[in-house]
Structures
1.
Amino acid sequence: MTTTPTESPEAATPPPGSGPAAKTSTTATKVPQGHRRLLTRRDRLTLGLMAGLPTILHVALVWVTALASILLAFTTWDGIGFDSIKWVGLHNFTELFTNNPQFWPAVEHNIVWFVALILIPTPLGLFLAVQLDKNIRFSRVYQTAFFLPVVMSLAVIGFVWQLIYNPDTGLINSLIGANEPGHYIDWIGDPDLNLWAILIAASWRHTGYMMILYLAGLKGVDPSLREASALDGANEWQTFKNVIFPTLRPTNTVVLVVTIIEALRAFDLVFVFNKGAEGTELLSILVTNNIIGESSRIGYGSAIAVVLLVISLAVIIPYLIATFRKERRA
Amino acid sequence: MHLTPSGLSVPGTSRRTLLRGIGGAAALGAGVPLLSACGGSGSSAGDSKTVTVGSNASDAVPKKAFAEIYAAFKKQSGLTVDVNTKDHNTFQEQINSYLQGTPDDVFHWFAGYRMQFFAAKGLATSIDDVWDKIGGNFPDAMKKLSQGEDGKSYFVPLYTYPWALFYRKSVFQEKGYEVPTTWDQLIALCKQMQKDKLVPIAFGDKDAWPAMGTFDQLNFRTNGYDFHVELMAGKASWTDAKVRKVFDLWTELLPYHQEGAVGRTWQDAAQTLASKKAGMYLLGTFVGQQFTNKADLDDLDFFAFPEIDPAFGQDTVEAPTDGFMMSKAPKNKAGAVKLMEFLGTPEAEQIYLKADPNVVAASTKADTSSYSPLQKKAYDMISGAKSLTQFMDRDSRPDFTSTVMQPALQKFIRDPKGVDSLLSSIERQKKTIFAS
């Protein structure tokens, strides 16, 4: 960038096909001789705007709001006028940790969400990707079918799965006759069932996502590795275990990060499904329930948001440290 | 891409477009606060011929009914009403920032604590002058309901509807059931219905508010109106033996409720009543909206929740009331006052009821001759009540009811055995919320 010659604008003029025309245009631009500064005033203004505006927007919309919610976490505020903000110290947090019957279930469910996504759809996605990578017939069709849920919004997925889970008129209960009194299965309301019902819906989508990530990773595997292992007489499983899977390491890191993010931001599917009622509480939903509404508990909701932020940082910071360390070594 | 010898992509025109892009981004940045501020319709600011109304009547039936009221108002006063309709739930969720921004002159709202809250916060204009003119149209209970904690009026009620136990006349006739008036009769009827392979009481609490209606009925029948009000205001304790009694009675009644209530919407529960699979259903008269077949709707009837303590009988009726408030600084105050006065007339109510026959007029002056038998009954029930309640989330702090009571009642419905720890948890959370 710093080597940009000021002559570059002239180079942009049409190639000397029409000789005289090109000449006149060069003289018309009048590059000031001896003005050997790297960037013109306009360039600097442009760069300033290009770098400055996003920075201002980023600071205002990300950092200021994040800091504001951290500050608000130590106050009570109903959201009406700034004079009603009252400092309460750690009260919101003690209240949250000791008195809120939904808080610990919410933390637990966020963790369950992550573990379930890692254990079920991730291996499934890898399996599908390996099968599709073999260029079987109708590979494109399968690929599209499995990837389709990823294209849909989670809110829409929530509606679709409600049609399946609806305890009175839903597909499952209608098929197995579990909508009669006496042997009734309440997929949405029973806290022993509803989290798993939602996780199946979430996995349905996540599998396709994982499949595409792994498929991209597999396409990057050098074919000569496969040839070499075939020559060494390795069977398919041995090849996968000892040759292919180790080369997928970068993909695995991406998968892990993506899954952690999915687990922490889980919200829309549950909100559509049953608004985070008994059995499906999530931190993101607690934040929303406390902050949005006619007389909101903004301080309290911010305290929950801060807990979510701390958990996110606890996950992200080790990842960043590991990544930077690797780069430094490289 | 066209590359210069130095390897950089061509500036010139592309740089200009880029700058234009930045200008656009800057405008967008500036537009963010603008966008959030223009919740109302600021375009007609200061226009003395227009009154703006913020409306949550996003459903087709009420939307059309209100449009007809405004058309009649224009004919009478020459003032145009500019309606800014928002989705019903979104309106409620945003009401806070809406009223602090640039709200419309007049807005739809609910009576009770929800009205008093915004009045106390200075986000509404008191309309005692309007009440001087329309006061004669309303009974005292409605007048009281329209007042803030400071005793000034802030609200013009338009319509109301009672909560009661709904049933189908044909089912009761066929099986020879009688309308229960006491708790023992209710339990006996439930048992009989169960024998007859009916779900005694339809129930759906997926939206988390219907269970509050059941609590309200049980509480004011058991402990009376005054205790109910104290409890809702955060003054009485949830660990009081009186509250425990309510939950004991509820535990007795729960087995007769439809199974799996937490996973069912009220609309689906209403369908079980419509299809005669359930015998009764405790809800507001809006349950009639789910009876799309005219013959079914004519077959629908209701009775007041049975007496529990003879000292209180059936003297309290839960009747949520909807109406209008004036925002804190209306742009066209004179016009807004005129509109509020018009909304308080029996004519305005009649126009509304013609289009939406599931509710009854708040005014005693409104013509009841065109009422359906169901509306007449609802009207008699409300006008004969000694005390009127709104609904748990309209009589108490909404932050308490939505973040504490809704999940607590859902928990209770699923597991009524854990009631003691549940009540002490409610009480602990209530103390913090009401202290803030």
Note: The CA atoms of residues 75 and 188 of chain A lie 35 Å apart.
2.
Amino acid sequence: MKSLLASLALTTALTLPGLAIARPVTLTTTLNNYGGDGAYLALYVTDASGAYVGSLWMAGSKSKYYEHLSDWYRATGGDPGQINGITGASVGAGRTLEITLDLADALFDAGFTLHIDAAVEDMRDSPNEVAVPLTTEGAGTSVRGRRYIASFAYDM
Amino acid sequence: MKTTLTAFALAIILPAGAAFADDDCNAPRDRWQPHEALMHLARQNGWTVKDFEIDDGCYEIEGRDRDGREIEVKLDPATLQIVEMDYEEKDGKRARNPAPAGTVAPPQNGLFGNGAPPQVQVN
């Protein structure tokens, strides 16, 4: 019952963003010099059970390439509605993408994970390149990606 | 009694159903921006306008973007925000691309605390 109430509280907080308490969070993603075209990056969040919750950012504007961000694509069916208003240009090798957004407080220390899928034209796809649990303690800690991402950190 | 309840239930359901069948844009006519404002926005975005019409209560532009790709853009006539944007790709296929950052509000997925668009820069 307690967990039901907790999940109900969380669901309510998540479905009513206007009422949720939020804090500004900066997501910093630095790509390594992989020597290729600009990378497509999908930043999204899953809950404690691994289910997709929503997207935070899509670097790369052409939907026909989104299938290469395969975990994100599988979770969303490539639905542009998931990323309307949060889409920008792809990110060049060696560059740093810095996103500042107001994230709902309910996302921290509650089992949510931030994922980044990456893809580069004519190079190998890299789904789940980064997966970091969203915790207040983990803020400011830099992690390495598997293929294209040299470092990722969230600060608040 | 059962009939009354069914009718009552229907009365509750129907307005929601009717809303789904509504237009894509719902701004009242007196709040619509003038045609000139739309054309000004098109010029700012580097679009060449071939055709303009009103569809489903929205402004709709057909033309080309600054890269020469064929585009079809549906805009809210009151706010001139992009409701939907389609590109024609080089291979002739039509891809439905998401609206770029800042042109519409971020998705209401509960992640964005205050609904403000993210601030982004690439260094």
Note: Residues 1-22 of chain B have pLDDT under 50 and may be disordered.
3.
Amino acid sequence: MSGTEGVDRPDGPTYEEWVAALDRNGFYLECANGHGSLPPRRVCPECGDTDLTQRSLPGTGTVATFSEVHVAGPAFAGETPYVTAVVDFGPVRLTGVLREVAADEVAVGDEVRADVEPDGPGDRPLVVFRPA
Amino acid sequence: MTGVRVAGVGLTPFGTHEGRAGRDMFAEAALAALADAGVASEDVEHLNYGNFMGALAERQGHQAPLMVEAAGLRCAGTRYEEACASAGVAIREAVRAVRSGEADVVLAGGMERMTNLSTAEVTESLAVAADELFEVRAGVTFPGAYALMARAYFDRYGGDREDLAHVASKNHANALVNEYAQYQRAVSVEEVLDAPVVASPLGLFDACPITDGASSVVLVSESYAAEHDLDAPVAVTGTGQGGDRAALQDRADMARTPAAADAADEAYDDAGITARDVDVAEVHDCFTIAEVLAIEALGFYEPGEGIGAARRGETTRDGRLPVNLSGGLKAKGHPVGATGGSQLAEMTRLLRGDHPNSDAVPDATVGLTHNAGGTVASAVVHVLEVAE
């Protein structure tokens, strides 16, 4: 018998559920005071509220910062150079790889949408951004 | 509360120690510190040991008892892990143990072995200090994370790669005479700007190297120092620690490091000083932008003003506040789990007057060390003062 059998899962969504939903109905968590956060999470990290509700992620976000990475770890070694970016989606920010745009064409403030590439480097789902 | 004196310090040279086990490097630093202190190894009551990636680099967890053994101590040890601030927090806890009266003599420091791994393996091992789900899986490397902070800083406050290049050039110049430094060679601003890109806007010479090395300090109570007639003129008068969200995306502002500001505020209050009292500082410049963020968080500069400090000659060896006279992580090297201990060792030597760069700060009485973990999700600040 595995150690986790019969144990209730946390009330909120898992990271895997969150990333799997990014390409159709991406979401974030919101507490009663309007703070945004991402799963897995039981408590709002801003105020400690435990009443977290799933909300739809805004359709587009804006690039807050980015970098073209030339030296990577083993999982991303075949991907270099790639552009990693942090994108503002209103109450939350997401980090991912920017697709379909060259590094010298990116600027802070560019509008993008979030997507997921299943089985990315390391065979794990990869958060990506594409031009909106 | 008893005062805490730095009785002795010890370092290995920082660089490539091919084929040397971590325990051998730590033993070298520990024995050097005990000899410098004139303290018998059997008087050491606890080892506070910092290490970050030993389980990956040497397949060796549970390192503290090994290091007790290697250093010839007869006491228990505890490993502290706070990414690149591991030795900083090990020292902070040693200070607290001595102050509380729980111990009179604590050996603190750290060790990291890194060059036996490939660059890709080191990149992956260091990335573990970031948020695994929301950063590492998205391809964020350690240099990549600081590059994201650099871009956010440029976008918010201005400044450019040439400003950062002056930070690198300054710290390499300081390392020229430091026998413990990995790179004792000058690097011009042009060389920094021409180096290959690691993660834009940062190039190879904006980054600290991959380094092996160890550090140790012997911290004692004032009463122990007096009873044993130790020559220990430098006291740790302030300690502080701050924390922040692990992932950059979750920070309120990616161009600031509030964990360091909180650590500094606590350390200043503890020592009863302000930022204006600091004569010389060793800050965590794992990347050039990190030094800029540090000198702002520590209260030496307003946000947005630190970027030009090296270029204006204010933080150079002949400036009003010399920063990283050791060469910093940038030129001295960054064996991550040892770095916080090396900062305390270098600052002690600078204040005692036996550092090769002590002549740059002959009248200095107050020094500050700033040690950061990850992208400053943790930070430890210490204030050192010449007590007699």
Note: Chain A has one domain: 15-131.
4.
Amino acid sequence: MEIRSREFKQRSVFAIHDANLQSALDRARDGFIGTRAARAAELPEFEQLREEAKGLKNHILEHLDHYLEKYEAAVTAAGGHVHWARDAAEARRIVLEICKRHDAKTVTKGKSMISEEIGLNEALIANGMEVVETDLGEYIIQLAEEPPSHIIAPAVHKTKKQITELFAAHHDRPPKTSVPDLVNEAREMLRGKFFAADVGITGGNFLIAETGSSVIVTNEGNGDLTQTLARVHIVTSSIEKVVPTLDDATLLLRLLARSATGQETETYTTFSTGPRREGDIDGPEEYHVVLVDNGRSKMLGGRFREMLRCIRCGACMNHCPVYGSVGGHAYGWVYPGPMGSVLTPLIKGLDNSYDLPNACTLNGRCASVCPVKIPLPDLLRELRHMQHQRELSPPTQRHALALWRFAATRPKLYHFGERIATRALALAGRTKGRIRRMPFAAGWTDTRDLPAPTGKTFIDQWKARRGQK
Amino acid sequence: MTSAREAILGAVRASLGRGALDDAQRAELDARIPAHTRPAQDEDPVERFKRKFESRSGTVVRIDSADQIVATVEAYRAAHDLKKKIAVGGALRELKWPRGWHKHHDPAGIDEALSLTTCFSAVAETGSLVFASGPDNPITHNFVPDDHIVVLEAKQIVDRFEDAWALLRKRDAGMPRATNIVSGPSRTADVEQTIQLGAHGPRRVHVILIG
């Protein structure tokens, strides 16, 4: 999908004034935060499991080559095929080639963020295939011709009324208004697609080296119908998703649903191991896995390695006040919220996504709920530092920071400046105790008043008090 | 020309600051036994399975012996006013059906409404059923019909997922092509966060628990 992260500010303004979006976001936030906390509280071992999951992911990353080779051998032994893709273009080519070889006309898809990252839908559609998203939320936004952006609840920003209108426009049936009727209508519409599909594409929440299995979790069962009923099942997954054994996957699964949707487990967890076997009367005839690198092997070497622990649960965005105010679309690419604000600049370039690391308030809630303890605020700060060093930040900001640094490293000068500024601000706000407008800070004072200081700096007050003692 | 595979593995190793691992190092990794914390559980596994499974809108009926399976299915059919047509897993081929019933052992078709299957195991931890695909256990039976009835013997219920994996590893056929862990009926909350059962998979999952 096309990156539009440069438009973050503009999109945020629209998002904040979109009443439907705001009510949807409020509802979602309250739900996800409460249910996650409840599920975590029910499991006394939850914090211990987080620490172990962090250790497990670090172990995997340290030996990633070994586990990938082992996984590949196990898939091959089960009769499947593993393909390696250095970047998005290579991944698209591999999937397209498989689809063309099977003369695919209809392709069903389970929700997969990596397929969005590599721009798969557009490539298949450009080659004349019908691509149907089968997760209900993804299906809704596909009808709305919106790019996906929420990971956990793709249509979280759509109201029932909007869904009614979308279905009425696309399904050629009388409009439905109740939730059950809407879900049933989608079920009926998609059933035919599952059975007609030539190729079914899913992601992989985990890849198990021990058994050569790809794992997906869903609540709807759409991913299972996608991979069971098509003649060919293609898994797209990024290289860091590999785990050594079934027991290791279990540790991460115990954290995934609880962190994501606040469920003890998702309804369906499916391990797929190769194609239909002798004697089987259903299941796909071919099984392919496309392992996508797309920058991850490089990320492994630098200070952002910790980001590769991410299991895509979405807890960070569910708990992020910025995401909660502007929604996923404002972020302008596949991955939104705190994890996206780290991943997007790393995958798509620092200059394509300048605002994302800077939109963070560094309140730290994302890190406090991350099941694999990724220090997201630290990584965001690191990205800001890199932007500054590469002179990607606006010149006024860089000059202001340079000036501040010049002063801050000279304490006498700094305190002198501070005294002047504090007195000036106190004067400016002397009538009401607050400042309505301030030059160079219109971004703040346009929407609120700045509380005026009392006229004395903290250090002056400190010294005065100490002197009294 | 370097293949993508070699390029990616090479880049991974370069980032890790080392070359390929030697045989001894690989053997050590292969010998690693994961020893993660397993959540404590002191409830009777059968009771826990039932409680957890029902908490997610699954239903359970307990019977004494396999002789009662067909009568139990008939009672379920009548209660939900379903047609007497059923897809039955090959493992239950020997069951005798009363007159008027149409049963088959083929994959579930697009209009399939009711299926009866066995399962491989069940996990008390989360109240989940484990299915292993195979000639007698077509995977479509688990996902296509509106109503899925599952025969489970009490002795098949294990405490935790790790116990189920140990059983899978002991199978002659090894890891099944598809291992489905099912924790209740299909559901979605995609429309205004309202839980709705029967998104794409079964609307109801009913367990006949023997013993």
Note: Chain B has a mean pLDDT of 96.
